[in-house]
Specification:
Blueprint lengths: L3 E2 H8 L2 E2 L4 E2 L1 E3 L9 E4 L11 H6 L4 E4 L11 E3 L3 H15 L3 E6 L4 H13 L4 E3 L9 H7 L7 E5 L8 H8 L3 E4 L13 H9 L10 E5 L5 H11 L2 E6 L6 E8 L4 E7 L2 E7 L4 H16 L4 H8 L10 E6 L8 E7 L5 H13 L14 E6 L8 H7 L11 E5 L3 H7 L5 E5 L2 H5 L2 H4 L5 E5 L7 H8 L11
Helix pairs in contact: 3-5, 4-9, 4-10, 7-8, 9-10, 12-13
């Protein structure tokens, strides 16, 4: 299906075309480009213009450029003054022509998993378009919009930030009917003076709300009054969710099971019983926020609750896998909780709670009992209090049920030294050194959590654990 004709793309961007072509997608990466894509030659670590010829050789319909690269046929180019601006204009035009109900999501923790919950819930009641991966920044949001077909019923746009002033322009570009803030927690504190400053930046998502729009906010936070004030200034309706009394959508009871979370709650004077197919209190609370979004959009609640129960997190975000350690003795397995994509104190605390609720299996391996084991890496961008925040994890209530904690990075050495000796595993400077040890540290029956900021590359540890055996078909928990 054609997404952009040459003339439509030229009109949207104000650019010039010398040929006629149809694009079925939009791409910024020649490694994943598909035949028929419009290649956007962004300048990032490298200049995208250097890859235009390669993109066209791989079947790209055309390329969005600011000049004609040497040896490239001008008939397959859309030439604009600035490629980033051109991409933004393409995204704005896609939003203008689409009649979908748009949801925008931000938060210090859980915005990507919540976006995926919304994709699942909304997808049960119409055609949905949502951002890939964590495409939530100055190029990710316009790229997501530019890829949006005109005939979708719903769109979910994830919006992130690293510095002040980033969220509002992206929200104005997305023009959501519903804007949601999952949680405000210590993250990116190096760029902000306080948690209150982060809250005001997150609350800037409401600046792009369409007239009559709805703000959905977490009502349990110390900074919830700030979010509510900003929401009331822009939104026609404000719905708060969480566990505290007084929230419109309130979680009243959470039961964390080994492979799922069951929650009870109340919303608009009605009782709710729902589940998510992964353990974690934070998933249950954000799930209630998703149900609040569904309510704001006027969707069928029963269908929304059913669809929510079918959602599972993706790789690096709490995905649970069974790793088969012996192809003959198939009972020799361990369970891996892959949460290695990112970390801050709130999300790490939630992951420790999930690990504490997990059920190891005894009598399988060299060790007489199954263990709960954590591999944790530095939490980045926490500002002046980073040392204390890492050390404080030793006192987290879930630590009482965790057997061993292995630590990666100079900041996590603070946690390592604060841990009781019997829980103290290994400490290494980087993930490569830790990954080399996993075969010696793990055994059948163990449940293993891997969690850290993306720059710590704890995905190496995840990969090393997976390579200990093979993941059986249908092994997701």
């Amino acid at each position: 299906m054609t997404l952009w004709t040459a003339q439509e793309a030229a009109a949207a961007t104000g650019g010039q075309v010398a040929g006629d072509w149809d694009a079925t997608g939009v791409s910024i990466d020649t490694r994943t480009i598909a035949p028929g894509d419009l290649f956007v030659a962004l300048r990032a670590a490298r200049d995208g213009h250097d890859f235009v010829a390669q993109a066209l050789e791989k079947g790209a319909a055309a390329a969005l450029v600011s000049h004609v690269p040497e040896g490239v046929d001008p008939a397959r180019l859309l030439v604009v003054d600035d490629v980033q601006t051109g991409l933004e204009k393409l995204g704005i035009a896609a939003r203008d022509r689409c009649r979908a109900q748009v949801v925008a999501v931000t938060g210090s923790v859980g915005k990507t998993s919540t976006k995926e919950m919304l994709r699942c819930v909304l997808g049960a009641q119409g055609k949905v378009h949502a951002a890939e991966k964590s495409y939530n920044n100055h190029w990710g949001v316009p790229l997501t919009l530019a890829r949006m077909p005109a005939d979708v019923d719903f769109a979910v746009i994830e919006i992130g930030m690293n510095h002040p002033g980033e969220i509002a322009p992206l929200s104005r570009m997305a023009r959501p009917h519903v804007a949601m803030v999952t949680i405000v927690a210590p993250a990116h504190l190096a760029a902000f003076e306080s948690l209150e400053g982060i809250a005001r930046e997150k609350g800037a998502i409401f600046e792009g709300l369409e007239p009559g729009g709805t703000a959905v906010i977490n009502g349990d936070l110390p900074v919830s009054p700030i979010l509510r004030e900003l929401a009331q200034a822009r939104a026609a309706h404000v719905i708060d969710f969480g566990e505290a009394a007084g929230n419109h959508h309130r979680v009243t009871e959470v039961t964390i099971c080994d492979a799922a979370t069951v929650a009870q709650g109340r919303a608009w004077r009605s009782n709710l019983l729902y589940k998510v197919a992964v353990p974690g209190r934070h998933f249950a609370v954000n799930g209630m926020g998703v149900l609040a979004v569904a309510h704001a959009l006027g969707l069928d609640r029963a269908l929304a609750v059913t669809a929510l129960g079918q959602w599972q997190p993706g790789a690096g975000r709490g995905l649970r896998e069974v790793v088969l350690l012996d192809p003959v003795e198939t009972q020799l397995t361990l369970e891996l909780i892959d949460d290695a994509y990112n970390a801050n104190p709130a999300s790490l605390g939630a992951s420790l709670e999930v690990l504490a609720a997990a059920e190891p299996r005894d009598g399988l391996g060299r060790v007489t009992h199954g263990r709960r084991i954590a591999y944790v890496g530095d939490m980045k961008e926490l500002g002046e209090g980073e040392v204390a925040m890492h050390r404080a994890l030793a006192g987290h209530p879930s630590m009482a049920k965790i057997d061993v904690v292995h630590c990666v990075g100079p900041l996590m050495r603070e946690l390592w030294t604060a841990l009781p000796y019997e829980k103290r595993g290994h400490w290494t400077e980087d993930s490569r050194a830790m990954a080399a040890r996993v075969r010696h540290d793990l055994d059948a029956g163990d449940v293993v959590l891997v969690k850290g900021s993306l720059s710590m590359a704890l995905s190496r540890v995840v990969d090393a654990i997976r390579k200990m055996g093979q993941t059986p078909a249908g092994g997701n928990g």
